[in-house]
Amino acid sequence: MSSISLPTLSLGKVPVIRSPRVRAIGRQLAAAVATLLVISIVVFGFMSLRTPSEIAHQKFGNQITPEQITAFAQSVGLDKPVWERYGIWLSHFVRGDMGTSFVTNSPVTDNVIPRFKKTLVLAALAILISLPISVAIGVFQARRVGSVTDLSLLIGSTVVAALPEFVVGILLLFLFARVLGWLPTDSTALVFPTSFKNEAEAYALPTATLVLAIVPYIARIARGSLREALGAPYTQAAVLRGLPRRTVVWDHAMRNAGVPLINAVAVNIVYLLSGVIVVENVFAFPGIGQGLVQAIQTTDVYNVLAIAMMMGALFVIVSVVADIFAAYLNPRLKATAAR
Amino acid sequence: MTATSAADIIPAEPIEEEGRPPSAIRAILRSTEGRIGLGIGLCVLFVIVFGRFFTPYNPDAIQVGPSAAGPSWSHLLGTDSLGRDVLSRLLVGGGAIILIPLVAVTIAWVLGLTVGMLGVYLGGRTDALISRFLDLLLTLPPLLVVLTLIGGAGTSTIVLVVSLVLVYTPRMGRIARGATQAAITSEYVQAAQARGERTFAILFREVLPNIISPTVADYALRITYGVIFIATLNFLGLGVQPPKADWGVMIHDHYAFFNVAPVATLAPAAAIALLSISLNLVADALTQHVTQGHREIVPL
Fold this sequence. Notes:
The complex is a heterodimer.
Chain A: H1 14-18, H2 20-47, H3 52-60, H4 66-76, H5 82-93, H6 108-142, H7 148-162, H8 165-179, H9 196-230, H10 233-240, H11 245-273, H12 275-282, H13 288-297, H14 301-329, H15 331-338
Chain B: H1 2-6, H2 24-30, H3 32-50, H4 86-92, H5 95-122, H6 124-138, H7 142-153, H8 157-184, H9 187-194, H10 199-236, H11 247-254, H12 263-291
């Protein structure tokens, strides 16, 4: 390990790398890159199940001749073996070139990047709104475990969590757009937004739907982990010392409940964020989720791949950020680092 | 590493009543949640199974009424854009949404149990290899993977079943593996080994009965996820294909006319919601029964 003796005086930062925290984060980053690679291989493999002739038929119609199919396959490189095509795609992708769609004949970047920005805003809004709400609900419940309020909230969250995102979306749409008429029935205004109000309105219902999908899950995890912390000996000790309840809950219990909570959020957020695919299709929101379904319906391989990578990156970033938070909160890692 | 994450779901010791696995039905009926869920669920199942005998119109016949009209006395839930009777389609449209998850999750359950038990029992490098592979599959976002599989292989009942199996097998394998690990160190397994029983006899007679109960709760939960998953795929237009009456497909087909005749969209959405809520309540009652702790809680 220390066979190469680095001059510690000139490189003062070297010992930091030994910190378990940084090492844990480094491991997470390596895992993140590996995940993205696996996603790209699986997606490429699955999408390659379509033969060039099927793709050509879908693009040019059924009048196409076998010669034309061969010419088309050659012109876009579909005649090469799968692994070779994957290699070409990957070498371009890591250099920032997403390729040109052979379905729409336009650069993938032009389609994907504007969509990704909108989805990013949607996902960030949903996470930032739902996290405080769900933690508040979870703490509220954990402090009165077994009471009528707790049980009714528990059943309520089970019911809301049981609803598929598109059903929640349709119900919100019915209520706020059709019955009350407060909000637009779709988010197509985002393609050419005219004013901030117009743009904000387009984000409202998709965000609300995602928040309703995320809150029951996280609130339940928060309730569980805080409940456990409230039952621990250190909490009893704090209560017996006569500390105010607020201090006990937020300072003693929450600090310990925080690590499993953030870990659980990191694991679940990936599945919850998949909800953007559904939600965007409910509201015709011009993000990558809508783009993904459209690209799949037209076998637009490069657009599907680019969107899959974007989505994978989004998931991976969110869970790495959560892991970093957990690493910083974890008292055990802190103790080792101090030593 | 894997054992700690599985420990959240799996109880430290399997609950046993005189060596018999606890009756799942009794566990469901004991909680209010479970009773409500079972009640709603049986009603929805009744509609799914017997609804086809009560259809006022032929569910696939077009132009039996005006296009995209609201509810009336002759069409209680109105008609869709092709003039088909929504009530009739609702009564026959619940089959695929429950059957596909049922078949797929059962296959995934059997596969997961096999992989999980074998992994632990074989141990060593095989176990490490199996765990790594399951972990690898678990990092893939399910909806993304399934959508691309459908994009490549087209959509059919078989593709839908395969994709659900693909998504759920690693998850169930992980849980089965964790439960087997807990069971394998117990005295009854050691006793069986001491008696000189063969590996498969030990796995089936000693280990399997003891890991069934945590996996049954998970099975119920996966069914509910599967129903939501298939309904979602149908809604996106990538699952069961249009001429067939299906709740998700009905929403997909009629969505453009939502503003004209909302009932034709809301009715199948409500049917999906009821089915999914009832399944979830039942699964929840089962999970709570399996994972019930005996920890003292400080009331704060």
